[in-house]
Amino acid sequence: MAIVVAEAKGTTDIEAVYREDGVRLWRALYAYSNDMELASDAAAEAFAQALGRGAAIRDVRSWVWRAAFRLAAGDLKDRSKYAHGPMADSGTYDFHLDDELVAALQGLTPQQRLVIVLHYYADCSVREISRRTGMNPLAVRSHLSRGRQRMRLLLGDDS
Amino acid sequence: MTDLRARMRIYDQAPAPDYWSEVETRAATVSAAAPPDRSARSARLLVAVLLTILTISAAIAVGSGTIELPWPVESPIPSPSAAPPSPSAPASPSARPWMTGRELMDMLAEEFGYQWFEVGGNVQTLFSSSADPGSNEPAWIMVDGPVDTAAEVYVVGYVEFAELASQHLDRVTQMLAPEEATWIANALDQGLRSEGPFSLDTMTTTGGYIDVTRPNEDVSSDVMVVRFLPVGDRTVVPFWCGGVPMGPSLEPGPRATPDPRELRCIAVENHSAVDMTLVEGDTGTGGRIPACTGMNQSGQNPTGPWSLQVGRADPELAIEGPVLASFDSSQLTGDPPYLIEVVVNADLTATIVQRLSLSEFMSRNC
Fold first, then answer.
1. Of A41, A138, A152, A159, which to mutate for an interface test with B (greatest number of B Cβ within 10 Å)?
2. Residues 107..166 of B with a Cβ closer than 8 Å to A: which?
3. pTM
4. Which of B74, B101, B120, B297 could form a disulfide with B251 if both were Cys (CB 3.0 to 4.6 A apart)?
5. Contact status of B11 with chain A (Cβ, < 8 Å)
6. Which residues of B touch A95 (CB under 8 A)?
7. Over the stretch B59-116, which tens digit does the pLDDT of each residue have?
8. A1-6: long-range contacts, CB 8 A cutoff, minimum separation 24
9. Is the dihedral of CA B56, B58, B59, B60 positive or negative?
10. Cβ contact A149–B213 (<8 Å)
């Protein structure tokens, strides 16, 4: 099959971001959605859209993260429930989540969960979260503050 | 919470697929024709992309160093005003002291039974109010640290719980800026009715600054934030971009700023197609102002006389050819903070003028 986009401007840059960040993005999306299929779909779609736009995107990394989380947020909203889901091409994985952590994350609002994942998993600062999500920094701080407080209780951590 | 970051590392073990081939397949498909079953997503993505482009464009124009001023540049939070600015007077020395964060927390605890919980922060400790720290109440108060300095307070609420948020807000307002209660109520009402991003701010006559913000973005449209800041140790940043006044913004300034009256703010717009340079004082240092950009900076006034000149930039950031406009400190009138506006027009004429007040600055018709 001819890969048309291979000739598009910026493909190399976008692929470089994928090689550097693709796995981390996928895992952050998984932490956010608790759904591997959704994570795969949103991540692949975001990179595909980035390829389609090529050089028009100046900050590929931020753009892709933002697009991916918006897609994931939209899909989560469309689905009335969160559920574990196997990837389409998944085999059997020797991977077990921290159930308490998953439950705590799912106990947050979507906005709180997003900023908690980006801050505590992807190691993003408030400014970086703002850049990667398009959220106003004030909103980021608010959700992060409240998310922390909620996680502290749900995880039984008073430290 | 010290181990949350460590616990989140469990996701490093999640079996992430290599999905690049899927990316290429999708991109090829999209470039050929959008499949019918993805049409809804494509439409949604188009909206997201448009929003993203708008946001990124604004961010690039404002904060990505399109202008390299020779002084530290504040990075303002875009604050699009949805209504004319408040007629409140520009900042003036406080009639009464802006209470400290600790005092506010103690008073709210004593009078209304608030409990305060430390929720940490990137730099300084943040406290959040709650009757029940574990509940996910839809409205709350945050007091930023350090709490022994003038209070920096956020009242946050999800818009569908505006009534509950209003209770918190009323209490904070009565303690910090009772004279602005009507303004806040009106701003909140406008924000709740707004269909797009909303931000409105005012300076209080008691030495504070208040803004009401509804981000109204894809993932945070349900939050309204009312922020109370002590203007005395903040930097006033008149902000605009591309000829559109976006409202004044306040950014963290040096906590130890001894006298807010020493603040000086310079806003720069270059409407021409030629790169310009802004040269300050006798230092000979220049800041490049690329064509069709705008930027601002703020800081303390230099001690002693100072001056500004603007003109076409040479490779060394000096002015090449004639100085298009100049300004020096002997021309300053009125009380600080001084608001200086530098405009280079499309026809390569330029002006540097002092705006006498923030309200005048804001009323400038671009």
1. A138
2. 117, 119-122, 126, 128, 130, 133-134, 136, 140, 142, 154, 156
3. 0.50
4. B74
5. yes
6. 13-15
7. 323 333 333 333 322 322 233 333 333 333 333 333 457 888 999 999 998 988 888 8
8. A1/B25, A1/B28, A2/B28, A3/B24, A3/B28, A4/B27, A4/B28, A4/B31, A4/B32, A5/A51, A5/A52, A5/B24, A5/B27, A5/B28, A5/B31, A6/B24
9. positive
10. no
Which of these, B307, B313, B298, B351, lies nearest to B332 by C-alpha position? B307
What is the reported pLDDT for B284? 53
Q: In the block, which residue shows the tokens 């020779």?
A: B70
What CA–CA distances, in Å, run from A18 to A22, A42, A64, B148, B360? 4, 13, 9, 46, 49
| Unique residue bearing structure tokens 């230099």 | B302
Give the H or E element holding residue B158.
strand B153-158
Residue pLDDT, tens place only, B119-162: 665 445 667 776 554 556 678 888 887 788 888 888 888 777 77
State how far the Cα of B250 lies from the Cα of A137, in Å rounded to an integer.
Answer: 13
Helix (H, G, I), strand (E, B) or coil at A150: helix
Q: Which ipTM score applies to this complex? A: 0.84
Grouping H, G, I as helix, E, B as strand and the rest as coil, residue B131 is coil
pLDDT class for B301, splitting at 50, 70, 90?
A: low
- Beta-carbon pairs below 8 A across chains A and B: 211
CB atoms within 10 A of CB A111: 24
In degrees and rounded to multiples of 5, residue B300 shows phi and psi of -75, 150
3-state secondary structure of B277: strand
